[in-house]
Amino acid sequence: MRSRFPPPLISTFLVRPRSIKGPLSSFSSISDDNPSLEHEIPISKSQSFDKPNHPQSLNLKTEKPFSQDQVLTQTHVTEVLLSHRNDPNLALTHYKWATRKMIIRDNEISDPFLALVHILICSEKHYGTAKKLISKCVTERSFPGAGELVSQFVSTAERFQFDYNSNSRVINYLLCSLVRASRLEDAVICFRKMIEKNIIPCVPYVHVLLNAMVRNNMFSEARVTFNDIVRMQIPYDCATIRVMIRGSCHEGKVEEAAEYFWDAKANGIELDAITYSTAIHAICKKPDAMSACALLNEMKEKGWIPSEGTYTNVIVACVKQKYMINALRLKDEMVDNGVPMNIVAATSLMKGYCVNGDLHSALNLLEKSVENGLCPNRITYSILIEGCFNNGDYEKGFELYNRMKNEGIKPNVYNVNSLIIRYFEAGLIKEAINLFDEAIENGIANVFTYNNLISWFCKVDKSNEAYNVFEKMMKNGVSPSIVTYNNIILGYCKSGDMDVALDVFKKMQENGLKPNVVTYSILIDGYFRKGKKEEALTVFDQILELGFLPSDYTFNILIKGLSKLGQTSEACLMLEKVKKMGFNPHCMTYNSIIDGFIKEGSLNSALAIYTSMHEFGVTPNVFTYTSLIYGFCKFKNMDLALKMRNEMKSKGLELDIVTYGVLIDGFSKNRDMGSASEIFNEIHQVGLSPNTTVYNSMISGFRNLDNIEQALVLHKKMINEGILCDLATYTTLIDGLLKSGRIICASELYLEMLGKNIEPDVIMYTVLVNGLCNKGQLEDARKILEEMGREGRVPNVVIYNSLIGGYFREGNLQEAFKLHDEMLDRGLIPDDKTYDILVMGKVKEGESTSFKST
C-alpha cells in the first residue's frame, strides 16, 4: 500500500503534535505509541512526490486506511510549512497536498493558511498567489469577520516570528481585497483594527478604501476615516485629497471640499495638476471665481497648462458672479494656450452677455462659435431665446426657436412652456395656442403647459376657454394640480360667476385634491367682488375652522375687500383683529385702507392711517402718495397735493404716470390749465410718455375752458405719438365742438370714431342729442334717437329732456308731449327737469338740460 503522505516529509511529522488553541479547527493527533513514526528519513528537495519508488509507509502490518490509525493534525502541516519558510514553492506544494488529502480544507482560516500567506507574501514570485488566497478568503462563507481575521494574522506573525513588513503586506492586501469584494463595512473594520494593531495602511490602499466609500455614497464614513488618517499621521497623497474633494462636492459641501485642498497645501502635501484642477472645480461650485482664478495662476506659474475643463469651470464661475471681463480674458487665454473653447464655455459667455443686456454680443458669439465648428445645443438655444425675450427682441427669440428645430434639436417641455408664456406676452395668441397644440401632439405637454394656457385665459376673463383646456387636460390623461383648479376658480371669480367657481371648487374635492389657503382666499376675493361681504367673511371663518393658517395674501384680501365695499372702518377693526393672529401689515394693507377712506370722502381718516404707517415702521410707496394726492385733488386742495408730491420726491420716490395723471386731472378740474400744462411737460422731461388717460384729462380741461382749439391740438398730438384715442377722448372733443357750434367738425370726428370701430355709448349719444338740440338741429338729434333704437340702445331721461326742451322752445308742444309719452312707454320715469319744461316752461335758449360732460 502507498503511503498516505509524501515520503520526503515523513521526518517532520515525527515531532509530537501540539493542540491548537483558539477558534481554529483541528484534527485528531497521531498516536504516541506508534513506533513506526520514530524513524527519521532525510528530506531531499529533488525527490518527486509521486514516483513509485518512494519509501512505503511504515504502517505495513495492516491495510487499514490511514485515517483510521494515523491522522495528521493541522499543527504538523503548519510546522512543515514553517520549516520551508525560505522555500515558498515547497511550502505551497505541501499545502496543496494537505488540502487534497483533506488534512485541511482549502482556504480554511487555520494556522496552515495563515502561515502560508505570510510565507508567500514575502516572495516576489509568489506574491500574486498570496493575494489570490486572501481575495478568495474574503468571499468564502466561512469568513470570520474582518476584525477577527486581522487579529489572527497578527497573532500568527507574532507566534511564528514573521517580520512586520510581511504582516503589514498581508493585512494591507486584506484591506484591498475587502474593498474589491464590496465588503466596505468589513473594510472599515479592518482599517480600524489595523490602527489598533499599529499597522500602517499603505497609501494606495487608503486611496482605494476612501474612493470606494465615496463611490458608494458613504460620505460620513469616509470623512471619519480620513480624519483618523490625519489625526494618526498616516501617510496619504494628493490622490486621497482628490477623493475627499469629489465626495464633498457630491454631497454639496463645496466649502468643505475646498478646505481639504487648503489643508493639504498647508501641510506640505505634494499636489499635482490634477489635484489643482479638482480643487478649482470645487471652488467654482461655490462659486468663488476670484479664488479659482488665483489657483489657475498658480498652476501656470508651476508650468502646467490648465485643461479645457478647468478653464471652462473658471469661465462659468466668473460669468455666474458677473465678472464678464475676467471670463472673456480667460477665454482668450485659453485659446492662446492652444486649448480649444467648447460649447459649455461659449454658452456660459452668451448667458453673461444676455444678463448684461448685451444681446448683440451674445448673438455674435453664437455665429462665431458655429464658424469654429462648435454645435449649439438645447441649452445654448434656450439661453439665447430667453435672452432675446428678456431684452424685448421677441422676433429674434422666435427665429432662434425655429432655427433650433430646423437643426434637429427637439425642444423640451421647458422650452415650449417658456415660449408659450412669451407668445402671450407679445400678444401672439394664435401662435401660443398653436405651440400648445404642437406640444400635445408631440407628447411633451405637462401640467405646467396646460396651467400656462389656463392661467392666461383666466387673466383675460375667458373662463370658459380656460375650462375647455381643463377638460382637454383631463381627456389627455394629465392630472390637474391644485394650481390648475385655483386658476379656473380665480377666472370665474374675476368674471363674477361665483356659482360656476363653486362647482369647480366642489369638483376639485371630488377628484381628491384638498383646497389650500390660496383656494379659499380666491373665493373670499370673488365674494367681495360681487359685493357679498357676509359670504366672504364666512369663507374666512371656514379657513380658521379647518385649522389653516391664513397667509398675508388672505389678510390683505380681507382688508382690501372691506375697503372697496365702503366698509373701511370695519376694515380697520379687521386689521386689529388679524394682527393678533400674527399678521404684520404691509404697505399694500395700509394703501387699501387709505384708498377706501379717500373714496368715502374721509380725508382726515386717510391721513391718520398714513401717520400710523410711519409709527409702525412701514414705508409708504408710490401708490400711497398717489392715493393721498388724489384725495387732496378731490377736495380741490391743490397746494397740499403739490406738497405731498414734493415729500414723495424728497424720499427718493419717482412719480409714475398714474401720479402725474392724478395731478393733471386735479388741476384740469380746477380749471388751472397752466399748472396742468407744466406737469404735462414734466412727464416728457423725466422720460415718461403720457397715456390716453393723461391726454383725456388735458383735453377735458381745455374743453371746460371753451378752448376747443387747444383740445384739438392735443388730439392731433395723440395721433402723431400713436396714443390710443378712446371713446372718452371723442366724447369730450365732440361735446366741446358742439358747444362751440362746430357741428360739421363734430360730425367728422364722430365718423372717425366709428371708422376705428369704437362704438358709441349712452353718454356719447347724450352728448350728440344735447349738443344738436341746443343748436336747433332737432331733426339730426331725432335721427340719433332713431339710431339708438336700431342699435338696441335705450335712451336715458337726459336725452328725452334735451329733445323735449328743444321742441318746446320751437313751440312744437305736440311733439314734446309725444316724446313724454314715448318715455313712459319705454319705462323711463320723468324727472323734475322734465316737468319743469312741460308744466312750467322752464327752458332757455342754448341751455343744456341736465347733462354734464366728462
Description:
- Keywords: Repeat.
- This is Pentacotripeptide-repeat region of PRORP domain-containing protein.
- Belongs to the PPR family. P subfamily.
- InterPro entries: Mito_RNA_Proc_CCM1, PPR_rpt, TPR-like_helical_dom_sf.
- It comes from Lactuca sativa (Garden lettuce).
- This protein is an all-alpha fold.
- Helix content is about 65%, strand content about 0%.
- The protein contains 45 helices and no strands.
- It starts with about 60 loop residues before the first helix and ends in a 14-residue tail after the last helix.
Topology:
Elements: H1 66-69, H2 74-83, H3 88-100, H4 111-121, H5 127-137, H6 146-159, H7 164-180, H8 184-196, H9 203-215, H10 219-231, H11 238-251, H12 254-266, H13 273-285, H14 289-301, H15 308-320, H16 324-336, H17 343-355, H18 359-371, H19 378-390, H20 394-406, H21 413-425, H22 429-441, H23 447-459, H24 463-475, H25 482-494, H26 498-510, H27 517-529, H28 533-545, H29 552-564, H30 568-579, H31 587-599, H32 603-615, H33 622-634, H34 638-650, H35 657-669, H36 673-685, H37 692-704, H38 708-720, H39 727-739, H40 743-755, H41 762-774, H42 778-790, H43 797-809, H44 813-825, H45 832-840
Helix pairs in contact: 2-3, 2-4, 3-4, 4-5, 4-6, 4-7, 5-7, 6-7, 6-8, 7-8, 7-9, 9-10, 9-11, 10-11, 11-12, 11-13, 12-13, 13-14, 13-15, 14-15, 15-16, 15-17, 16-17, 17-18, 17-19, 19-20, 21-22, 21-23, 23-24, 23-25, 24-25, 25-26, 25-27, 26-27, 27-28, 27-29, 28-29, 29-30, 29-31, 31-32, ...
